[in-house]
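Why do we care about 3D structure at all? Because function follows from shape, and shape follows, mostly, from sequence. That is the central idea of this module. The next example makes it concrete: a single protein chain, its amino acid sequence, and then its structure expressed as tokens.
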Amino acid sequence: VDTIWTQDNQLHTEGLSNALNAVAGINYEFSPKQQAGVKYTLTAYPGENRDMGETKSDIYANGQFYDRLVSIDQKKSEAQPRHRFNGYYNGTFGKLNVDFNGDFYYSDQNTRSAINESSEEQDDRNILSDNRILNRLLATRTILSHPLWGGTFSLGNEFTRTHREDDYQTSNSIIPSSNTEIHDQNLAFFAEYNRATPIGQLTAGLRFENAFWDYYRDGVRDDEVSRSYSQWFPALTYSNQFGNVQLQMSYSVKTVRPSYWQMSSSVFYANRYTLQSGNPFLKPSTLHDISLMSSWRFLQLAVSWKMEKDIIIQWAEQMEDNPAVTLLAMKNLQ
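And the structure:
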């Protein structure tokens, strides 16, 4: 950039949150080989949750003083009771073991923010915003296990479906309003085989995931952002004991998907020179992990090598229409 902009920020925050949790559940043993249960968790927030932040910022242009800001951000959050249901079943039929878990989650929260920003060199600003976020989740996991060739073979399925609504309204034209929805569905199948061999314990697994991501702006599906993924994830583990030395080596491939806030289109106001936003174009990153763990008496050794492709990081860029303003956003780094 033509001008080097420097900020020196001091931030002080205080918050008050009142949460009330209630848990109720029951389980039943049909027989020594079959049992099931359900659990309900209620989280309520009596009254309002409040947060107050004060930021003092000194702004410099090419090392010369440019402006001094004092921003006071007062947030008030009203959350509806959050509900979570969980159910499980575990049963054995002959040599076949069945393990099932299911979850449902619901939350609804509205946050109002009022930012009063005073400037020594320019006009003062007042930024008001109202952000309502609604989340729903349905998830199941089923695993079938059976002895096979002196070891144990497991076959499983996972299903996850989420729905998120993010309505962000502002009173200032500097910060755009946004109304987005994300519908996410993930279907996975996996298999694992473990067996004790003359050279040690071996475990091999393979997982296949098929994920669908539908992104909506103002109720209309955005085909450019919506996407689907299909990927295989292998895993291999070897462990053994040599006298007093225990050894374990493993290799696995995993995916790291962006969180909802990282994909948000909402632009949040830090000060007139700093804005923060997510990036709906983010892609999942892939993590390769090779690790070695060993122990001897009271000594332990752990060595790990990791490589993450398309890692998600926070990146700062200058606004094209005003290079003095920095936008902090998320991006994939190759």
